[in-house]
Amino acid sequence: xxxxxFGMLVLCLAFSTVNAQYKEVMNPKGFTVNLKxxxxxxxxxxxxxxxxxxxxxxxxxxxxxxxxxxxPKGVYSLSSIYLKSNVHILIEAGTVIKPxxxxxxxxxxxxxxxxxxxxxxxxxENVSVRGKGGAFIIDYHTRKYKDRQRAIxxxxxxxxxxxxxxxxxxxxxxxxxxxxxxxxKVKDVSNWEVSRPTFGTIKNITHYKASPxxxxxxxxxxxxxxxxxxxxxxxxxxxxxVGANNKNVGVYDLTAKNIINKNxxxxxxxxxxxxxxxxxxxxxxxxxSSTFAVTVGDGxxxxxxxxxxxxxxxxxxxxxxxxxxxxxxxxxxxxTFLEYPKVSDYFEHLKVFSDGKFYEGPAVTAVxxxxxxxxxxxxxxIKMEGFPHMNDKPIVxxxxxxxxxxxxxxxFWKKAHPGDEFVLDKGVVVKxxxxxxxx
Length: 439
Description:
The protein is mainly β. Helices cover 12% and strands 37% of the residues. The chain is globular, with a radius of gyration of 22 Å.
């Protein structure tokens, strides 16, 4: 009897994991409008802000009980779009969306501020933003290093899909996609039906020229969300740095598959700060000339955080099937200097970003594992290719750091490399470039 009950429990858990993502509710033959034919959208090379046309369509489709909005191929200016329940945005492959400068987000998967003020527990459900026939592009490559821009934010949303999208960036502030908890920062939200993005899938996303301090997707709050086929050049592809100063931050029951990063910090980053996070399962990680493939940070406490105890990820969390390929175009943070076995491993290979905080330099190894307040499982299937160092050490910990001062090494490097040729112009100048979907 006990064995039978245990077997049923395992089956239920497996079923829960498989279904911890978006459930398709979009009817391709259901009520559909065309934003060009029905709402006068013009392919004007993003000369005029036409966001009001899409907002009107979303409101009317929602009022009819839901349906699909097709955006034909073209180049448009769209910003600050809030989805409503049962509305699906289908964007034809090759379409380019250019957000207005100063409009921080293109698509908001959440209730708008007016509805939130009336009832903070309100949420939208059964929504999607997806490519039709291939990937669409959100293009903000004209932003610079300190400019703030996001493609999508998800907050109070249940059963959502983001699929087949390219972000064309220029090392701007923020990740292309951010998932965050509700704006309720004080009261307990454990009895809310939805308090963060819940039951979702984010799939087939490519992000170019991501900032070393950000990346493709960051999760401050999410539950039962699946991530698959994420590729970023620069930054972090799958960033679980749960650092928002909000009592209700936290991520739970997330799964991820095939996460890739090139010329960045890492493909997967875990940083709990003071958040008490649930189970995270990642299968398939690849870095190509990135500092690491995976970094797992310690729990810590920000000075003004509402929870003043170190955070963690659940002990049953795991990351497996990791590949790290060596290169010399990684985005390296100053303190990481001490994780190279010798100064000579990086000294003549660095260039510095304009902020002086990050550098471009060689990859270190596959995994940086730094927790002292919790543990997760790192699988044994780790492969390294082309590394001139660390081939016998795919995982480094705090104990492996050299005992020198990274600040002193930074000053030494700077004194030896005073010329402008050692300063990068990434994010400082605007250069157009071609993009294509990785998946």
